[in-house]
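Long-time lurker, first post. I've been practising inverse folding by hand and with some scripts of my own, and I keep getting stuck on stretches where the structure tokens seem ambiguous. Below is the full token string for one chain I'm working on. Before anyone asks, I'm not after the true native sequence, just a reasonable design that respects the backbone. If someone could post their per-position residues I'd love to compare against what I wrote down in my notebook.
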């Protein structure tokens, strides 16, 4: 299998908690990351994205060792629940930041932004300010910004937690379509087993700072084998 992500004995201590991650994620897969609160799911994402400094092991993304690669240079986009749009910038500009942090966009860059906004159902929203958008629209904008970054790995940290069930379902459908069309590798933290089963093809269960189970999504609820 081609691996998008491999963590080998990756260790880190934070506030008295020891984390030790071993994990292999096939390229193009959609993995639901599950586990109790405080088990280390967000920490796993921060390690992959390069926001935490580890003290053991290796992180490989797309087969490349990330030891000396800064977060901004990693082949990764992160999308959070509170989707971090800049309140003082309109939607076009917020998404454009995904193309060029200095906002120096050529014609092709501007087309990329417009296409991404269309793709997530926000054509015509270019001049809108984040405060005038609904929660679902803000989440769509965050997806558009991830899309224009063109990174092969997308990490979603409870992206729909703030949305009501119907919108959650709708946004899940959009995410599934984007995954199918773009072929990126998705890891999504979710506490909802039904959502995991609907969207993902694999799961990872984290407990006490370690991956304790992983496999096909159909086995998500099977009893744990030690
Ligand atoms: N920078 C830090 N300093 C100290 N402790 C930390 C730090 N970051 C995380 N922790 C602790 O590590 C543990 C794992 O945190 P993490 O956010 O990864 O859990 P999680 O599985 O994502 O939880 P949740 O589902 O509640 O979001 C928690 O007990 C948290 O308090």
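-- Answer (accepted) --
I ran through it position by position. Result:
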């Amino acid at each position: 299998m081609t691996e998008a992500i491999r963590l080998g004995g990756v260790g880190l201590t934070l506030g008295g908690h020891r984390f030790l991650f071993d994990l292999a994620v096939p390229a193009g897969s959609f993995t639901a990351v599950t586990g109790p609160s405080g088990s280390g799911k967000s920490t796993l994402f921060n390690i992959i994205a390069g926001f935490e400094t580890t003290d053991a092991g290796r992180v490989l993304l797309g087969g490349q060792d990330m030891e000396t690669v800064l977060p901004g240079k990693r082949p990764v986009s992160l999308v959070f629940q509170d989707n971090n749009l800049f309140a003082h910038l309109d939607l076009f500009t917020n998404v454009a930041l995904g193309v060029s942090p200095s906002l120096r966009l050529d014609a092709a860059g501007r087309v990329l932004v417009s296409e991404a906004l269309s793709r997530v159902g926000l054509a015509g929203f270019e001049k809108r300010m984040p405060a005038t958008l609904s929660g679902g629209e803000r989440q769509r904008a965050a997806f558009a910004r991830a899309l224009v970054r063109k990174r092969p790995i997308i990490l979603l940290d409870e992206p729909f937690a703030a949305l009501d069930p119907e919108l959650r379902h709708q946004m899940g459908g959009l995410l599934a379509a984007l995954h199918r069309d773009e072929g990126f590798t998705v890891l999504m933290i979710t506490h909802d087993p039904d959502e995991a089963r609907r969207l993902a093809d694999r799961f990872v269960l984290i407990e006490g700072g370690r991956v304790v189970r992983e496999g096909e999504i159909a086995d998500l609820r099977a009893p744990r084998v030690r």
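A couple of notes from the structure itself: The CA atoms of residues 39 and 207 lie 5 Å apart. The first strand starts at residue 3 and ends at 14. Happy to go over any region you disagree with.
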